[in-house]
Amino acid sequence: GVAPLARDSGSMRGTRSIWGGRASVRQALYMGALVAVRFNPHMRTFYQRLRAQGKVAKVALVAAMRKLLVILNAKMRDQMAAAAAT
């Protein structure tokens, strides 16, 4: 649920917004990304690099949300593999 979905039809180009997926997960990722951008040095440099490239603040924050989601999924995968090995 953090990928922007297009509202296009034929030659008409609509807006892009993030509305897919579960709202509760999306809200938790949003708040987590806000905190990570402020206090995590790696996420802060990622966010600042996107802003320096000319990305809008909200677009850079959504990219941080996605990066946070990938990190959390990898941590879950590694914990499940470690638990299965024992």
Automatic annotation (TrEMBL):
Q: Which residues constitute the signal peptide according to the record?
A: none
What are the residue boundaries of the Transposase IS116/IS110/IS902 C-terminal domain, all occurrences included?
1-48
Pfam families assigned to the protein according to its UniProt record, in alphabetical order = Transposase_20
Q: Which GO biological process annotations does it have?
A: DNA transposition
Superkingdom, taxonomy of origin: Bacteria
**Gene Ontology molecular function terms on file:** DNA binding; transposase activity
List the InterPro entries. Answer: Transpos_IS110, Transposase_20
Protein name, as recorded:
IS110 family transposase
In its UniProt entry, the species of origin is given as Luteimonas marina
